[in-house]
């Protein structure tokens, strides 16, 4: 009777996956990625105004979006700690609050260095918490439809790419950059609403009683034997050993160094994506000022980023459905590699001409490549590592990305 009741409880606990409230969580993840990953796409709209306001060079001004994007991806270990200690919902809502505070504070900045701290560090860290916790929770709510869920969630980034530049240009023309940043603070506060939807999911495996770890049991028995023999362990050595063990366990738990050393697929994938990201964010930072410098009207220049986002909206779900087919099971890495190759080669189009029609062609090809990368990045990572270590693997993955994200735009500037 008890076994039948336990089986029924297990089925009930696992029921929310792939159905019901899971789709509400997916909807929240779409909005969340639009509010976080899509947000840096609008920074290029403010580039010239910030340069004029603070009398800053290209390189000095580009540090602001670089820090934001780098912290957005590099705060993974902190997010991993928050998720493990307090859950995904808390991390998402805290991130929304930090993002809002950062942008509201940015509207009062008196120097470009203050903008590095407020919009760069604080808003970037808040976006990191919201985005990465939102990606992690999808892995628990979806199993059968996980590939499709990740692709659909990534369309939120495309929506952000489409809407943020248009909204930014309109508000900048009407109110100036300071009031625009103030309004952005209120918009980013909606991350807290998305986080409230992501209620904790109790799975059957989590409700089962956990047996004590063999290593811990052996340690306790050894300590008991020592005490029964009347011998007291040397306290300084034990404390030093325990500190080393705690440090090693923390690195494995939150940064997945053990996976990086042992899993060659994860190692190659992480290093490869980190190298790719050095140039991945450059169009969002420099495409608008590049077009304006070459005679394109400001509104048309802002439209270029929106074109990238608009095409992404339709291509990303298609990429998710295609990669979810059984033919590509275990082979999604090849689709990702093809998208990364196309993304890199597309940048040569800008060398041909800076006319608006040529730049539109560039945006179309670039957006197709970015759709593949955006839809598959985290799905391939989920294929490479086990789901129970995904949060830790994501932390190391994103912190290595953040290094190249940070140096790419200033180096180009």
Automatic annotation (TrEMBL):
It is a multi-pass membrane protein. One of its GO terms (molecular function) is monocarboxylic acid transmembrane transporter activity. SUPFAM superfamilies: MFS general substrate transporter (SSF103473). Residues 207-239 are annotated as: Disordered. Residues 226-239 have a biased composition (Polar residues). GO terms for cellular component: basolateral plasma membrane. Pfam families: MFS_1. It comes from the Eukaryota. PROSITE patterns: MFS. The chain crosses the membrane at residues 21-47, 63-83, 90-108, 114-141, 148-167, 179-198, 268-289, 301-321, 333-353, 359-381, 393-411. This is MOT6 protein. Residues 22-413 form the Major facilitator superfamily (MFS) profile domain. InterPro entries: MFS, MFS_dom, MFS_trans_sf, Proton-linked_MCT. Keywords: Membrane, Transmembrane, Transmembrane helix. It is found in: Membrane.
